[in-house]
Amino acid sequence: MNAVTPPEALASAAPLHERRPALDRLPVIIIGGGPVGLAAAAHLLERGLEPLVLEAGRQPGAAVRDWGHVPMFSPWTYNIDRAARALLERHGWTPPDGDAYPTGHELAEAYLDPLSRTPELAGRLRLGVRVTGVARVGNGKVRSAGREQQPFEVRVLARDSRESRLFARAVIDASGTWSSPSPAGGSGLPAMGERDAAAAGRLHYGMPDVLGAARERYAGKRVLVVGSGHSAAGTLIDLARLQEQAPSTRIVWALRTRGHLTRAYGGGAADQLAARGAVGTRLRQLVERGALETVAPFTVDTIEPTGSTLLVIGESDQEQRSLQADAVIVAAGLKPDTRLLAELRTDLDPALDCPRALAPLIDPNVHSCGTVRPHGAHELAQPEPGLFLIGMKSYGRAPTFLLATGHEQARSVAAYLAGDEEAARRVELELPETGVCGGPAVVAEAAQAPVCRLPAAAAAPEAPGCCGPASPPPPAVPPAAKGCCG
Questions:
Q1: Which range (153-157, 198-202, 205-209, 465-469) has the least confidence?
Q2: pTM value?
Q3: Which of 130, 198, 241, 245 has an alpha carbon within 20 to 30 A of 83's alpha carbon?
Q4: Per-residue pLDDT reduced to its tens digit, 318-375
Q5: How many CA atoms lie within 13 A of 204 on its CB side?
Q6: Residue 143 contacts by C-beta under 8 Å, 6 or more apart in sequence?
Q7: Which residue pairs, CB below 8 angstroms and at least 24 apart, start in 283-288?
Q8: Can you list the alpha helix ranges (DSSP code H) found in 250-357?
Q9: Domains plus CATH for the chain?
């Protein structure tokens, strides 16, 4: 393994050209210290490459801890990356019961925490460091001459707001999308008044812990849930449990289309992950027995405070309709924040904000299968050689990401950066079917749970009859700069 210049040495007062080491002495910087980012680090180490993981949170897997109360759809067996497991077991780690279903907190505490503390990773993980931008040293986005021979410059802010910079031979963006929830507004912009409602603490995003830390906020209240993905489904089920404890609780579920209602029910018994299928089955039962009121179609336009409640005004069947609620939960999906890559050359799908080569495999406007053909470095690479988007970030606004897919992406990208082209192209993963598929008439809303909320892979045959034949071989990735990434 090449010796790497310590980042502290790169912050000296010497001229930039003097304190910037040779490319082959620079690390591969991984943005994001969640399950996929740490898996990427483990795979790079296995390949003899040097990773440096930058995590904005105070602990690894900060986003996972935000939904820590949520149980996962898949058992432990499918939620642990192969290279990460090998690294842990070298230090005597005892894995959890493979058949048990962990919560987000358990995933972080029993897996991510010990992984981050291994001697191999502990010194290569920086916590409380937020990446604010990435560029090529001495090259803006426009300049092409000699671009590939220059390292990446990564600007970061520490917890004390001090700015510094690091240099890298390659950059893997595994920062996820959890911090960028989609708004309630039907146009993609926040509804009029939405920001004020959120600032006042009356509107929240994602999957609040309605049975635990946030119980008092919702017990005995009229709660409106906006969204139709797994996040919305899980929250509705928890609210129904809260309703059993506090019978005056009222639940209203607003969906953009009636078709989203059918989609939210999922494949039921046909789902190859029983826990995931059970969520849809339970949700259907709640709707059928009247435990919650459904409003579909409904597109949110304006949110107005009216005394102690909120008036949510929108359109339903081309007519204005108003819904009153004490509290609003918006689970309308996630989207990537691509601003930190603004000075790099990227090729993202204009609709999904994901790597363009990946878009046809995951676009909910084209298919609604939960299973996506495994893919790797060649679909994820950007026109900027050495830049890769992996994990939830790679799926942009699409709702079908699986944690095991992120592990496979990490393996493939590490192989590519190590120069093992054959391993980078090889598929080492099969994914389970959801039991529900459809064409353009069944459009899946980009509303979904966090990266680990969705299932990891189970051994299951691919089913080309669901979403069409396998995609053609991916286009070749631009060659890496000599001495940098190859």
A1: 465-469
A2: 0.84
A3: 130
A4: 999 999 999 999 999 999 999 999 999 999 999 999 999 999 988 887 755 455 677 8
A5: 17
A6: none
A7: 283/233, 283/236, 283/237, 286/236, 286/237, 286/240, 287/253, 287/261
A8: 258-265, 274-288
A9: 7-179+334-467 (3.50.50.60), 194-330 (3.50.50.60)
